[in-house]
Amino acid sequence: MSHASCAGSLGARRPDGRAACALPIGLGNFARLRLGEQIRLIGECWWIILKAPETKSDRPDDRPIPAILTEVLHRWVNVWRPVFHPTNDALWPSTKGGTLAYTYVSHILTETTRRELGVAVNPHLFRDCGVYTVATYAGDRMGIASALLQHVDSRTTEKHYNKGAMLTAAGRYQQIIDELM
Fold first, then answer.
1. 8-state DSSP, 65
2. Which of 111, 131, 100, 80 is CA-nearest to residue 28?
3. Cβ distance 32 to 99 under 8 Å?
4. What digits encode the pLDDT tens for the residues 63-112?
5. Could you report the per-residue pLDDT of 155-176, keeping only the tens digit for each?
6. Is 112 within 8 Å of 15 (Cβ atoms)?
């Protein structure tokens, strides 16, 4: 399978940071993903497909899952997910067979990042990271970040998420001070 031709994945035994980081969709949407509905394998590519009524912005959100995650998603769906004996098509089933509540998804993501990285990263911070990455590598095109987060008004992204611009400005200010000294 070509990484260039596709996109996809999630965790090994439970929701992990790889999917949340690569897919900065809202926690509610992430927790409610259902196989064959909001998450689909189309050809060799996994896609997140959210209908307008399923999103906070009331706009459809279709995005490929990054190819680097494809193998992990295949393993989750085919090996680990069945261990929970799901009684539905929830991507994140609970041990009782239903859908894992979003509060548990949040807790698992936060604790997994604490264990693996030594720092607890809650699901909302993954969205911050997406904006920070755009600000750092494509700061002149912040509209990318608004689209990534499905914000209708780019001022929402700027107001609530763009800490990257502040850090970039602080770094540039320090360079100016250094040059003057």
1. P
2. 100
3. yes
4. 888 888 889 899 999 999 998 888 889 999 988 878 899 899 999 989 98
5. 666 665 556 566 666 777 788 8
6. yes
Pair 120, 130: CB distance under 8 Å: no
Nearest-5° Cα angle at 56, 158 to 107: 85
Angle between helices 123-138 and 163-180 (to 10 degrees): 50
pLDDT at residue 130 is higher than 80: no
- Residue 51 CA to residue 14 CA, distance in Å, equals 25
The dihedral built from the CA positions of residue 69, 33, 150 and 18, taken in this order, carries a sign that is negative
Query: Which residues, including other chains, have CB under 8 Å from residue 127's CB and lie 6 or more apart?
Result: 24, 26, 149, 161
